[in-house]
Amino acid sequence: MCITIALDAMGGDFGPPVTVEGANLAIDLLKKSSTLGGVRVEFLFFGQKERIEVELGKYPKLAEISKVFHTDFIVTNEMKPIEALRHRGDSNLGMAIQSVADKKADAVVSAANTGAYIALSKVILETFHLIDRPAIPAIMPNANGRSIVLDLGANLECSVERLTQFALMGEALARVLLKKNSPSVGLLNVGSEEMKGHAIVQATGQILHLIDEKTQKYSKKEDGIRFHFHGFVEGDDIFKGVTDVVVTDGFSGNIALKAIEGAIWFFFKLLRDTMRDSIIWRIASVGVLPVLRSIKKTIDPRLYNGAVFLGLNKIAVKSHGGADAFAFAQAIKVAAQMVQSDFIEDVEKRLQLLSEIQ
Fold first, then answer.
1. Domain tally for the chain?
2. Where are the alpha helices (DSSP H) in the chain?
3. What is the pLDDT of residues 211-256, one digit of tens each?
4. Order of strands, edge to edge, in the sheet holding 66-70?
5. Residue that finishes a domain, picked among 228, 263, 298
6. Cα distance between residue 123 and residue 130, in whole Å
7. Using CA atoms, how far apart are residues 311 and 345, in angstroms rounded to an integer?
């Protein structure tokens, strides 16, 4: 199997030096993957040709499986979505996304600014029926492995229907990325008790319970998989790994993500400062450092880079704007996993459940 991935070479804080090296790292990353080892990959780079080819010159093997498409118009980090839409046909980001719509590539990966990327993806790739705006998920480490949290900022205010859609799409994504047959889904709330939360969360919970009950009746002959709704979960349950998927609106999700990132940063800063100021800690650090390195590796955000825009008819993956080459390679791996799966068909089947219970 050969997968073609379109790369916005100019996106993010660093452009070609990171995106090209990231593609080179992704080649080995895919070979080592237990599920993608037999997959061949080709790349289409979009952006300023001279800058891209300078970087490709450092990686002959990558250059052999890559094509470069030139454009002078670059979607910058500060560009507003409306401006990016005006140049959908001649910008680095617009051309990369269009290559997927034209079936010249199987997926697109970019570290461009989120607003422009979502706007262009929605217009060019289109969304599923009844979904008006994609959701942004993230993979996070927890006590039991990993979990998917969504939405993280694409939809600040959410209706009952939209939160329900997030739950169904997030569950389908978990089956692909977390390799779980029937992942559990939790709805973020101020408490786990059934009577807690505002009206929208309460109503969403009731619908998800109905979907759970309906899918429990599936038999193997119907080729159906149960939708496992755990119920309400609280913020601290994300890292406890109570559920495989945590659903919330983009406002709450973005705040939770930034709070988690800040807490991790503060922890390691406090640890460094303590070790630096204490002779006892300096001595003890000889034995402690290997453990700390192992912990840091587990929660290294670069390992979890690559957010799939949920709700689109095609595969579009968002890399963090400040990602280095290693992190960008992880986003490419996510794109390859999504292409190889039946994710789009699975989402369509899951969303069909909404009309069946109404």
1. 2
2. 16-32, 49-56, 60-64, 81-86, 92-101, 114-125, 160-177, 199-215, 237-240, 250-277, 279-298, 325-340, 343-357
3. 999 888 765 545 568 899 999 999 999 989 999 999 999 899 889 8
4. 66-70, 40-47, 2-8, 107-110, 315-318, 307-308
5. 263
6. 15
7. 12
Residue 195 sits in a domain of what CATH number? 3.40.718.10
pTM, two decimals, is: 0.87
Chain centroid to Cα 75, Å, comes to: 21
- Looking at 263, 278, 295, the residue that finishes a domain is 263
pLDDT of residue 44: 98
Contacts 24+ apart (CB under 8 A), 170-173: 170/135, 170/137, 170/245, 170/247, 170/310, 171/227, 171/228, 171/245, 171/350, 172/343, 172/346, 172/347, 172/350, 173/137, 173/148, 173/245, 173/308, 173/310, 173/343
| Nearest alpha-carbon partner for 155 in 184, 114, 197, 126 | 114
Question: Is 90 exceeded by the pLDDT of residue 324?
Answer: yes
Distances (CA, A) of 289 to 265, 272, 282, 302: 17, 11, 10, 20
Residue 128: strand pairing partners = none
Which pairing describes strands 137-142 and 145-150: parallel, antiparallel, or unpaired?
A: antiparallel
Q: Is the dihedral of CA 299, 300, 304, 307 positive or negative?
A: positive
- Domain range for residue 202? 137-263
The per-residue pLDDT for range 267-323, each reduced to its tens digit, is 878 877 777 777 766 666 666 666 666 666 666 777 888 899 999 999 999 999 999
Closest CA to 323 of 304, 346, 296, 348: 304
